[in-house]
Amino acid sequence: MYSFKTSVEGDLERVETRVVEALKNEGFGVLTEIDVQATMKKKLGIDKRPYKILGACNPSLANQALDAEPDIGLLLPCNVVIRQEKDGGITVAFMDPVAVLQLVEGEKIADLARDVKSRLERVRDAL
């Protein structure tokens, strides 16, 4: 598996606010936000359910990772997906950094990946 997730009650905007706040509490900021629903409508004329991708980054941990492996930027930031399901429920899914960063050899990266995962799991649990 390359992700872990949770179901959250509320509308997408409120859930997004909660996710961003929980990320902040773990030292993450949101660098990017992609509104997939709006993009698909604009570019392809397709109506989709609400779906957002947040690019989350903990600057201190990202800096350590970049110092250990300069090309690791290809695997950053940590993506968090907030999507509305068919039944109206909201799912928040997190990239599993341990699964993704195992592509990079080295114990320092493995240690960082475990740290990031535990922080993201705390974000999930806080929701």
CATH architecture: 2-Layer Sandwich
SS element count, helices:
5
* CATH fold naming: TATA-Binding Protein
Strand neighbour order, sheet with most strands: 1-5-4-3-2
Number of DSSP strand runs: 5
Mean pLDDT across all residues, rounded? Answer: 96
Shape: globular
Helix content: 40-55%
Largest sheet: 5 strands, antiparallel
Distance between the termini: 21 Å
Give unreliable regions as ranges.
none
Q: Helices and strands, in N-to-C order?
A: EHEHEHEEHH
The CATH superfamily bears the name TT1751-like domain
**Number of individual domains:** 1
Pfam families: DUF302
Protein name: DUF302 domain-containing protein
Written description of the protein model:
It is a single chain. The mean pLDDT is 96. The protein has helices at residues 12-25, 36-44, 59-68, 97-101, 107-126, and strands spanning 3-8, 29-35, 51-57, 78-84, 90-95. The chain is globular, with a radius of gyration of 15 Å. It has a 5-stranded antiparallel sheet. It has 127 residues and is α+β, with helices and mostly antiparallel strands. Strand 4 and strand 5 (90-95) form a beta hairpin. 46% of the residues lie in helices and 26% in strands. The chain has one domain: TATA-Binding Protein (2-Layer Sandwich), CATH 3.30.310.70. It contains 5 helices and 5 strands; from the N terminus they run E-H-E-H-E-H-E-E-H-H.
Descriptive tags:
127 residues; alpha+beta; TATA-Binding Protein; five-stranded antiparallel sheet; 5 helices; 5 strands
